[in-house]
Write a structure and sequence with these properties.
Number of strands: 0
Oligomer: single chain
Strand content: under 5%
Order of helices and strands: HHHHHHHHHH
Shape: elongated
Helix content: 55-70%
């Protein structure tokens, strides 16, 4: 296609990705993102069988969520989290970190806070220092310095360099 001067669009990429084995599918997905083509629900549907062929382990799901977040596709990252739970795949600490980072990068403050509170209250995921740091960063980057400070004050754990760094990073914004 490129030799003919044609650039693949989302439909072309979807056709290429669908039916591939995991390594090829993820490689093509990465190439699609690098080319600046945004995936759509059909893209995800095309990727899921590839992940299923390897047993849909948690690392695969986390990688996809992180990839979406890094490319500003927060809604897709959250949809994938929901799909993961529908498939009875339990999110872990890495999943929560990826989703919180996605919300932070996408400016989805309320969604990030809601997910954090939900995970903390349900105890589905053990909340760790890096999760608090993500939430502090979300709050500070959105100008909620006082709320971030309140969270630091109420912590039932030691304040880490990561948390302090997130707080100070928000001061710069």
């Amino acid at each position: 296609m490129k030799l003919a001067g044609l650039e693949p669009n989302e439909f072309t990429w979807n056709a290429l990705i669908t039916g591939q084995q995991i390594v090829e599918a993820v490689g093509l997905f990465r190439d699609m993102l690098v080319a600046g083509v945004k995936p759509n629900p059909v893209t995800i549907t095309g990727l899921l069988p590839a992940f299923g062929s390897m047993g849909s382990n948690i690392a695969s799901w986390n990688a996809m969520i992180e990839c979406y977040g890094k490319h500003g596709m927060v809604d897709s990252a959250i949809e994938l989290l929901d799909k993961m739970e529908e498939e009875n795949i339990q999110p872990n600490q890495v999943t929560l970190t990826c989703v919180l980072a996605s919300c932070n990068h996408g400016g989805m403050v309320n969604k990030g806070l809601t997910l954090f509170k939900s995970m903390r209250e349900s105890q589905r995921v053990e909340i760790r220092h890096e999760h608090y740091a993500c939430v502090i960063d979300i709050l500070c980057c959105s100008g909620e310095m006082e709320e971030a400070n309140d969270l630091i004050q109420e912590l039932r754990t030691e304040v880490t360099d990561l948390m302090i760094g997130a707080f100070l990073n928000g001061c710069v914004v």
